[in-house]
Amino acid sequence: MLTRSQQVLKRIVDILLSITGIAFAVIPMIILIAISSLFTRSFGVFFQERVGINAKTFTMFKIKTMREYTDGSIVLTSFGKFLRKTKLDELPQLFNVLFGSMSMVGPRPDLRGYADVLDGDDRIILSVKPGITGPATLKFSNEEMLLSEQENALDYNDTVLWPQKVEINKAYVKNWSLAKDFSYIFKTVHQVFS
Questions:
Q1: Where in the chain are the domains?
Q2: 64, 100, 158, 171 - which has most CB atoms within 10 Å?
Q3: Taking 80 as the threshold, does the pLDDT of residue 194 lie above it?
Q4: For residues 5 and 3, what is the distance between their CA atoms, to the nearest angstrom?
Q5: Residues 127-177: tens digit of each pLDDT
Q6: Contact 44, 64 (CB under 8 A)
Q7: CA dihedral in degrees (189, 169, 56, 8; nearest 10)?
Q8: Which helix (H) or strand (E) is 84 found in, with range?
Q9: Closest to 175 (Cα-Cα) out of 105, 98, 110, 115
């Protein structure tokens, strides 16, 4: 578990990086949201409740990638596929970091029914803010493709992917260092642009 001074250091770095990121990305973000609005026929920002630090929920921001039709069906748009592949749909989470509900690096924020029901030693994951990127995010960057190849995607996620993510995220918290956080950020940028 991170010490108080480590938490303060991590938060200072988060504020500096999120402000820098927003300064560079705000214009592209506005353009992407506008294009998404055209493709989805709705406001191009997606809001969803996720589980954060200490199992408290928060509203996570993403650029919308799916269109909902009048018959109730929801379909991934062609522009949405591009956003997901490049991870650009996650740019608005820089505001989550700035507002303090997320960190630049940490376990990915989950829907209810996963991180919030962890017990025992596994709950150490909930002692840090969820992140835009992290070791588990990098390892399973092809998660959507993996799940699409499974006969039962939910079962595969719950019995194969989720337990591995828990172990990776526990190791992240137990062995946290600022240098490792920066290495995950650099690896993420390299992965997106390679």
A1: 4-193
A2: 64
A3: no
A4: 5
A5: 999 999 999 999 998 888 888 899 898 999 999 999 999 999 999 999 999
A6: yes
A7: -70
A8: helix 78-86
A9: 105
In the three-class reduction of DSSP (H, G, I as helix; E, B as strand; rest coil), residue 31 is classed as helix
Q: What's the pLDDT tens digit per position in 116-126? A: 999 999 999 99
Q: Which of 134, 143, 141, 145 is nearest to 170 (CA)?
A: 134
- CB 70, CB 64: distance < 8 Å: no
What pLDDT, in 10s, does the model give residues 24-73? 999 999 999 999 999 999 999 999 999 999 999 999 999 999 999 989 89
**Main-chain phi, psi angles of 138, to 5 degrees:** -70, -45
Classify strands 74-76 and 103-105 as parallel, antiparallel or unpaired: unpaired
